[in-house]
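name: query_chain
kind: protein
chains: 1
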Amino acid sequence: MGGSSGRNSSALHLPLGRADYGWTLDLQRTLHARRRAGATPDIVITVEHNPVITLGRSGSREHLLAPPSDLRREGIEVFEVERGGDVTYHGPGQLVVYPIVDLREHGRDVKGFVRRLEDATIATLADLGVEAGRMAGYPGVWVSDRKVASIGVYVSGWVTRHGLALNVAVDPAHFAMIRPCGLPVETVSIRDVLGRAVPLDGVRDGLLGRLAERFGWDLEASSLVEVLGGASG
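structure:
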């Protein structure tokens, strides 16, 4: 199941709390360049975004089901980005994880990287009592035929950015504004499956532990000042 091999390596966890997507995207690009240059170890960003819709490389605006006026009313921005995949939504109640990982140290295997993200998410959900798995031909994690986590990555110079989004307690009305991944599928949150609220921070900590297992990391909490050497802007 995509476990790690060899001794553990140091990696940093950068918790951002709630943050706008555009600012976080710029931060990812900065940290990606630093990781490629060997200036930092692997970094795992965790964040809860303000409402936003993103279109990946295979995305189509035809999969935006709400008119621009509705998006403006809800304060939802739209970004076209370089990750794989189609359209997805990020917003409150969703745990977003951006691993900035040098795959030269993890087998130079992009498909294996995505599989590890899926494995860690499936294990985290199992820890919470949610039975989840894959759907053949589609990245991400599913509860039966409903999507609970989206995965879309970008790799340049063997270093990754973008990542995964796990629905903990997301507003279903916002998901109704898109056709997720361009597919006629339903999305679901952990709250909906369990019938009760689950603290997002608890889900985050569980997922970080499962990711650390699969990538062989000793994760250490860090801050923007520490990661950027005081140049956080």
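note: Residues 9-228 form a domain with the BirA Bifunctional Protein; domain 2 fold (CATH 3.30.930.10).
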